[in-house]
Design brief:
Elements (H helix, E strand, L loop, with lengths): L8 H9 L2 E7 L6 H9 L7 E7 L5 H11 L3 E6 L9 H11 L9 E5 L3 E2 L4 H11 L3 E5 L1 E6 L2 E4 L11 E5 H6 L9 H11 L3 E4 L6 E4 L10 H15 L3 H10 L8 H15 L8 H17 L1 H12 L3
Parallel strand pairs: 1-2, 1-4, 2-3, 6-10, 7-11
Antiparallel strand pairs: 4-9, 5-11, 6-9, 7-8
Helix pairs in contact: 8-10, 9-10, 11-12
């Protein structure tokens, strides 16, 4: 055991050979963040650095961050001015890049955009790096998110063809090649499709040691969950998703809480954006790539559509 790090000698060797950096945008996370902080500190392979961006918190978040940064020299806090409200989508990515500017990406093999409302299993990052070492074409990956309900863990039902937005673990080379994150609501969908366009894999695994608890359900909002679902519908429209695929997705999610109404809110978010002729993601080549994938997924299923792209791109 190394007394400086609390990592056993094999774990210390791994940490030296696997340099990863975490960047965490946050605002008013006092209710959840200690669980995330403690679960990262308890990782079998700890990050080389963790940059946490306080995006204008008005609760006890700054005090909690100062407490942890004072005990762990590899945690750095970046403080931004209070904009007066919680900003999702582009606001979160702006905060992420405020942290990204504080690092030299070339110093690390991997980076992760990590939210502060998660509870991670102890070998989470070690196992992700093992998977990426085994397959050098994996550009981004994650485990699966669950919420606690009535003493049970309930899956948030995210597909295997994406890395989840609350814990986007990236190979630095891939992140740079795709141009990083788009500063819009659907940033966490666009990035995975851009990975495949560029010959990388995006994936996630639903296995016991890679399941993490999401303390705030996906698609919720600072106002209410219906606003969050409508925002997701707009994000799908912005990304370039066609109506047929959007309708099929809404039907697939109809059994998720809030039952029926959640799916209708998502669909309405897409329709409202289309009726207002809101702008879409400017990369037309990307939108053509996305539509081709979505049509193949509707006809043959997502798995077959992804496998077809992998074959075309020569991804093993």
């Amino acid at each position: 055991m190394d007394n400086r790090t609390g990592i056993s000698e094999p774990g210390l060797l791994q940490a030296m050979n696997r340099r990863y950096v975490l960047i965490s945008p946050c605002r008013n996370e006092a209710a959840y963040m200690r669980q995330t902080l403690d679960s990262v500190i308890g990782q079998s392979v700890r990050p080389a650095k963790w940059v946490i961006v306080d995006d204008g918190s008005t609760d006890e978040t700054p005090q909690i961050l100062a407490e942890y940064a004072g005990r762990h020299g590899w945690i750095e806090i970046v403080t931004r001015k209070d904009r007066g409200h919680r900003a999702v989508g582009p606001g979160v990515i702006d905060a992420f890049y405020a942290g990204y500017e504080k690092i030299n990406p070339g110093d690390y093999d991997y980076l992760c955009k990590l939210d502060l409302d998660l509870r991670l299993p102890p070998r989470y990052f070690e196992l992700l790096m093992q998977r990426m070492e085994a397959n050098p074409r994996i550009g981004t990956c994650s485990g699966k998110s669950y919420i606690e309900e009535g003493g049970r863990l309930i899956s948030e039902r995210k597909g295997d063809e994406t890395s989840l937005g609350m814990t986007k673990f990236y190979r630095v080379a891939c992140f740079r090649e795709i141009g990083g994150f788009v500063r819009e609501v659907m940033w966490d969908g666009i990035d995975c499709h851009r990975c495949r366009m560029n010959g990388w894999m995006a994936c996630s695994w639903d296995e016991p040691e890679l399941r993490f608890v999401h303390l705030r359900p996906m698609g919720s909002s600072q106002q209410n969950i219906y606003v969050g679902r409508m925002r997701h519908g707009y994000g799908q429209y912005f990304m370039g998703t066609g109506f047929s695929y959007m309708l099929a997705s809404a039907v697939f999610r109809i059994s998720e809480k809030p039952y029926v109404l959640g799916s209708l809110a998502t669909l309405w978010g897409w329709l409202q954006s289309a009726m207002k002729n809101k702008p879409r993601y400017e990369d037309r080549e990307f939108r053509r790539f996305l539509r081709h994938y979505q049509w193949r997924a509707l006809v043959f299923g997502k798995k077959a559509a992804i496998e077809e792209i992998h074959r075309e791109k020569g991804i093993v």
